[in-house]
Amino acid sequence: MSKLSLRNVVKRFGNNTVCDGIDLDVNSGEMVCLIGSSGAGKSTLLRCINLLEPIEDGEIFLDGADISIPGLDPEPVRRRIGMVFQSYNLFPHMSAAENVMLAPRRIQKRTRAELRPEIEALFARFGLADHMDKYPDQLSGGQQQRVAIVRALAMKPEVMLFDEITSALDPQLVGDVLDALRALKSDGMTMVLATHEMGFAREAADKVCFLKDGKIIEEGAPDALFASPKRIETQEFLSRALK
Protein backbone atom coordinates (compact mmCIF):
# COMPACT_ATOMS: atom_id res chain seq x y z
CA MET A 1 0.00 0.00 0.00
CA SER A 2 1.03 3.59 -0.58
CA LYS A 3 2.18 6.63 1.39
CA LEU A 4 0.39 9.95 1.05
CA SER A 5 1.98 13.32 1.89
CA LEU A 6 0.55 16.84 1.72
CA ARG A 7 2.68 19.97 1.93
CA ASN A 8 1.23 23.46 2.43
CA VAL A 9 -1.99 22.58 0.58
CA VAL A 10 -4.20 25.62 -0.06
CA LYS A 11 -7.70 25.51 -1.55
CA ARG A 12 -9.88 28.59 -2.06
CA PHE A 13 -13.39 29.14 -3.32
CA GLY A 14 -13.35 32.78 -4.36
CA ASN A 15 -12.18 34.74 -1.32
CA ASN A 16 -12.91 31.86 1.04
CA THR A 17 -9.84 29.82 2.00
CA VAL A 18 -11.13 26.34 2.83
CA CYS A 19 -7.77 24.56 3.22
CA ASP A 20 -5.11 26.88 4.58
CA GLY A 21 -1.58 25.50 4.34
CA ILE A 22 -2.25 21.88 5.34
CA ASP A 23 0.62 19.48 5.98
CA LEU A 24 -0.26 15.82 6.47
CA ASP A 25 1.53 12.48 6.28
CA VAL A 26 -0.33 9.18 5.97
CA ASN A 27 1.99 6.20 6.07
CA SER A 28 1.33 2.94 4.30
CA GLY A 29 -1.35 0.95 6.11
CA GLU A 30 -2.32 3.81 8.43
CA MET A 31 -5.82 5.00 9.21
CA VAL A 32 -5.93 8.76 9.76
CA CYS A 33 -9.17 10.34 11.00
CA LEU A 34 -10.01 13.98 10.33
CA ILE A 35 -12.28 15.50 12.96
CA GLY A 36 -13.74 18.97 13.38
CA SER A 37 -16.95 20.92 13.01
CA SER A 38 -18.85 21.12 9.74
CA GLY A 39 -17.13 23.66 7.49
CA ALA A 40 -13.68 23.00 8.94
CA GLY A 41 -12.37 21.80 5.56
CA LYS A 42 -12.38 18.03 6.02
CA SER A 43 -14.45 17.12 2.96
CA THR A 44 -12.70 19.62 0.71
CA LEU A 45 -9.33 18.27 1.78
CA LEU A 46 -10.37 14.75 0.74
CA ARG A 47 -11.62 16.05 -2.60
CA CYS A 48 -8.28 17.77 -3.16
CA ILE A 49 -6.39 14.54 -2.43
CA ASN A 50 -8.52 12.72 -5.01
CA LEU A 51 -8.01 15.59 -7.50
CA LEU A 52 -11.72 16.37 -7.61
CA GLU A 53 -10.74 19.92 -6.63
CA PRO A 54 -7.61 21.68 -7.94
CA ILE A 55 -5.44 23.29 -5.28
CA GLU A 56 -4.15 26.85 -5.35
CA ASP A 57 -0.85 26.12 -3.68
CA GLY A 58 1.17 23.30 -2.17
CA GLU A 59 1.87 19.73 -3.23
CA ILE A 60 0.26 16.33 -2.83
CA PHE A 61 2.56 13.33 -3.08
CA LEU A 62 1.62 9.70 -3.63
CA ASP A 63 4.63 7.45 -3.10
CA GLY A 64 6.90 10.45 -3.56
CA ALA A 65 5.40 11.57 -6.90
CA ASP A 66 3.67 14.95 -7.05
CA ILE A 67 0.12 14.22 -8.22
CA SER A 68 -1.07 17.84 -7.91
CA ILE A 69 0.87 19.24 -10.89
CA PRO A 70 -1.46 21.43 -12.97
CA GLY A 71 -2.55 19.71 -16.17
CA LEU A 72 -1.83 16.21 -14.86
CA ASP A 73 -4.39 13.63 -16.04
CA PRO A 74 -6.35 12.84 -12.86
CA GLU A 75 -7.78 9.49 -13.99
CA PRO A 76 -4.69 7.31 -13.32
CA VAL A 77 -4.45 8.90 -9.87
CA ARG A 78 -8.12 8.25 -9.10
CA ARG A 79 -7.64 4.60 -9.97
CA ARG A 80 -5.05 4.47 -7.19
CA ILE A 81 -7.04 6.57 -4.69
CA GLY A 82 -10.59 5.37 -4.11
CA MET A 83 -13.23 7.59 -2.49
CA VAL A 84 -16.55 6.89 -0.81
CA PHE A 85 -18.95 9.77 -0.19
CA GLN A 86 -21.80 10.49 2.24
CA SER A 87 -24.33 9.66 -0.47
CA TYR A 88 -24.05 6.19 -1.97
CA ASN A 89 -24.61 7.32 -5.59
CA LEU A 90 -25.64 3.84 -6.72
CA PHE A 91 -27.43 3.55 -10.05
CA PRO A 92 -31.01 2.56 -9.16
CA HIS A 93 -31.61 0.59 -12.38
CA MET A 94 -28.59 -1.68 -11.78
CA SER A 95 -28.18 -4.46 -9.25
CA ALA A 96 -25.59 -4.10 -6.54
CA ALA A 97 -23.21 -6.38 -8.47
CA GLU A 98 -23.72 -4.44 -11.70
CA ASN A 99 -22.99 -1.17 -9.87
CA VAL A 100 -19.73 -2.64 -8.57
CA MET A 101 -18.66 -4.09 -11.94
CA LEU A 102 -19.37 -0.96 -13.97
CA ALA A 103 -16.07 0.89 -13.47
CA PRO A 104 -13.76 -2.14 -13.86
CA ARG A 105 -15.63 -3.11 -17.05
CA ARG A 106 -15.51 0.36 -18.58
CA ILE A 107 -12.11 1.56 -17.38
CA GLN A 108 -10.13 -1.67 -17.10
CA LYS A 109 -12.00 -3.38 -19.99
CA ARG A 110 -12.58 -6.51 -17.92
CA THR A 111 -15.42 -8.93 -18.60
CA ARG A 112 -18.27 -9.87 -16.28
CA ALA A 113 -17.05 -13.47 -16.21
CA GLU A 114 -13.56 -12.36 -15.26
CA LEU A 115 -14.82 -10.02 -12.54
CA ARG A 116 -17.49 -12.21 -10.97
CA PRO A 117 -15.25 -14.29 -8.65
CA GLU A 118 -13.49 -11.18 -7.34
CA ILE A 119 -16.76 -9.34 -6.84
CA GLU A 120 -18.34 -12.30 -5.06
CA ALA A 121 -15.38 -12.43 -2.69
CA LEU A 122 -15.69 -8.70 -1.94
CA PHE A 123 -19.42 -8.93 -1.28
CA ALA A 124 -18.83 -11.89 1.04
CA ARG A 125 -16.01 -10.02 2.80
CA PHE A 126 -18.41 -7.25 3.78
CA GLY A 127 -21.41 -9.37 4.70
CA LEU A 128 -23.27 -8.77 1.44
CA ALA A 129 -23.12 -12.19 -0.22
CA ASP A 130 -26.92 -12.51 -0.27
CA HIS A 131 -27.47 -9.03 -1.69
CA MET A 132 -25.44 -9.01 -4.91
CA ASP A 133 -28.42 -9.25 -7.24
CA LYS A 134 -30.67 -6.86 -5.32
CA TYR A 135 -31.37 -3.34 -6.50
CA PRO A 136 -30.42 -0.35 -4.33
CA ASP A 137 -34.00 0.32 -3.22
CA GLN A 138 -34.11 -3.24 -1.85
CA LEU A 139 -31.14 -2.53 0.45
CA SER A 140 -30.89 -0.65 3.73
CA GLY A 141 -28.79 2.50 3.93
CA GLY A 142 -26.00 0.61 5.67
CA GLN A 143 -26.02 -2.08 3.00
CA GLN A 144 -25.95 0.52 0.23
CA GLN A 145 -22.99 2.23 1.89
CA ARG A 146 -21.12 -1.07 2.12
CA VAL A 147 -21.87 -1.67 -1.58
CA ALA A 148 -20.34 1.76 -2.27
CA ILE A 149 -17.21 0.66 -0.37
CA VAL A 150 -17.07 -2.58 -2.37
CA ARG A 151 -17.49 -0.58 -5.58
CA ALA A 152 -14.45 1.53 -4.71
CA LEU A 153 -12.42 -1.53 -3.74
CA ALA A 154 -13.24 -3.28 -7.02
CA MET A 155 -10.80 -0.88 -8.72
CA LYS A 156 -8.04 -2.18 -6.39
CA PRO A 157 -6.99 1.22 -5.02
CA GLU A 158 -3.88 1.75 -2.94
CA VAL A 159 -5.44 4.48 -0.77
CA MET A 160 -9.06 4.91 0.35
CA LEU A 161 -10.76 8.18 1.32
CA PHE A 162 -14.06 8.23 3.24
CA ASP A 163 -16.16 11.39 3.59
CA GLU A 164 -18.54 11.19 6.57
CA ILE A 165 -19.87 7.89 5.27
CA THR A 166 -22.02 7.21 8.35
CA SER A 167 -23.59 10.67 8.66
CA ALA A 168 -26.70 9.84 6.63
CA LEU A 169 -27.34 6.48 8.31
CA ASP A 170 -29.71 5.55 11.10
CA PRO A 171 -27.72 4.94 14.30
CA GLN A 172 -28.43 1.19 14.28
CA LEU A 173 -26.83 0.88 10.81
CA VAL A 174 -23.63 2.76 11.61
CA GLY A 175 -21.96 -0.20 13.31
CA ASP A 176 -21.97 -2.40 10.20
CA VAL A 177 -20.24 0.28 8.14
CA LEU A 178 -17.64 0.94 10.84
CA ASP A 179 -17.00 -2.82 11.00
CA ALA A 180 -16.29 -2.69 7.25
CA LEU A 181 -13.66 0.00 7.90
CA ARG A 182 -12.11 -2.12 10.65
CA ALA A 183 -11.88 -5.00 8.19
CA LEU A 184 -10.10 -2.76 5.69
CA LYS A 185 -7.67 -1.62 8.36
CA SER A 186 -6.89 -5.23 9.23
CA ASP A 187 -6.12 -5.78 5.53
CA GLY A 188 -3.50 -2.99 5.69
CA MET A 189 -5.34 -0.45 3.55
CA THR A 190 -4.07 3.15 3.75
CA MET A 191 -7.09 5.28 4.71
CA VAL A 192 -8.09 8.86 5.43
CA LEU A 193 -11.53 9.42 7.00
CA ALA A 194 -13.52 12.54 7.71
CA THR A 195 -15.75 11.45 10.56
CA HIS A 196 -18.00 12.56 13.40
CA GLU A 197 -17.72 9.12 15.02
CA MET A 198 -15.43 10.08 17.91
CA GLY A 199 -15.52 6.68 19.59
CA PHE A 200 -14.48 4.98 16.37
CA ALA A 201 -11.69 7.51 15.74
CA ARG A 202 -10.33 6.99 19.24
CA GLU A 203 -10.47 3.21 19.01
CA ALA A 204 -9.41 2.52 15.42
CA ALA A 205 -7.29 5.39 14.07
CA ASP A 206 -3.51 5.46 14.06
CA LYS A 207 -3.59 9.26 14.01
CA VAL A 208 -6.30 11.88 14.55
CA CYS A 209 -6.16 15.39 13.07
CA PHE A 210 -8.38 18.17 14.39
CA LEU A 211 -9.27 20.77 11.73
CA LYS A 212 -10.60 24.26 12.33
CA ASP A 213 -10.94 27.06 9.79
CA GLY A 214 -9.08 25.08 7.14
CA LYS A 215 -6.04 24.32 9.29
CA ILE A 216 -4.88 21.25 11.18
CA ILE A 217 -4.85 22.74 14.66
CA GLU A 218 -3.64 19.61 16.44
CA GLU A 219 -2.77 16.03 15.54
CA GLY A 220 -1.54 13.00 17.38
CA ALA A 221 -2.20 9.48 18.57
CA PRO A 222 -5.88 9.05 19.48
CA ASP A 223 -5.37 8.30 23.16
CA ALA A 224 -3.20 11.37 23.67
CA LEU A 225 -5.36 13.73 21.63
CA PHE A 226 -8.65 12.67 23.21
CA ALA A 227 -7.35 12.34 26.77
CA SER A 228 -5.19 15.48 26.96
CA PRO A 229 -5.55 17.80 23.96
CA LYS A 230 -3.00 20.62 24.07
CA ARG A 231 -4.88 23.32 22.18
CA ILE A 232 -7.84 25.15 23.68
CA GLU A 233 -9.70 24.85 20.35
CA THR A 234 -9.36 21.05 20.46
CA GLN A 235 -10.48 20.95 24.07
CA GLU A 236 -13.58 23.00 23.28
CA PHE A 237 -14.50 20.89 20.25
CA LEU A 238 -14.09 17.59 22.11
CA SER A 239 -16.06 18.84 25.11
CA ARG A 240 -19.01 19.38 22.75
CA ALA A 241 -18.47 16.32 20.54
CA LEU A 242 -18.13 13.84 23.39
CA LYS A 243 -21.26 14.90 25.28
The parts where pLDDT drops under 50 for at least 5 residues are: none
Number of strands: 10
Q: What is the CATH C level class of the domain at 4-89 and 160-241, in words?
A: Alpha Beta
> CATH superfamily assignment of the domain at 4-89 and 160-241?
P-loop containing nucleotide triphosphate hydrolases
Instruction: Tell me the CATH architecture of the domain at 4-89 and 160-241.
Output: 3-Layer(aba) Sandwich
Q: Helix- and strand-based class?
A: alpha/beta
CATH level-3 fold name of the domain at 4-89 and 160-241: Rossmann fold
Q: What does the radius of gyration come to?
A: 18 Å
Shape: globular
Q: Helix amount, in percent? A: 25-40%
**Main sheet characteristics:** 6 strands, mixed
Give the N-terminus to C-terminus distance in angstroms: 36 Å
Q: How would you state the average pLDDT, rounded?
A: 93
Record the strand order, biggest sheet.
Answer: 6-7-8-3-9-10
Element pattern in H and E: EEEHEEHEHHHEHEHEEHH
Approximately what portion of the residues adopt beta-strand conformation? 15-25%
Walk me through this protein's architecture:
This protein has 243 residues and is of the alpha/beta class. It has a domain at 4-89 and 160-241: Rossmann fold (3-Layer(aba) Sandwich), CATH 3.40.50.300. It has helices spanning 42-49, 74-80, 96-107, 112-125, 141-153, 171-186, 198-204, 222-227, 232-241; strands at 4-13, 16-26, 31-35, 57-62, 65-66, 81-84, 159-163, 190-194, 207-212, 215-220. It has a 6-stranded mixed beta sheet, sandwiched between helices. A hairpin with a 2-residue loop joins β9 (207-212) and β10 (215-220). α3 (96-107) packs across α4 (112-125), α3 packs parallel to α5 (141-153) and α5 (141-153) packs parallel to α6 (171-186). The chain is globular. The termini are far apart. The model has no long low-confidence stretch (mean pLDDT 93).
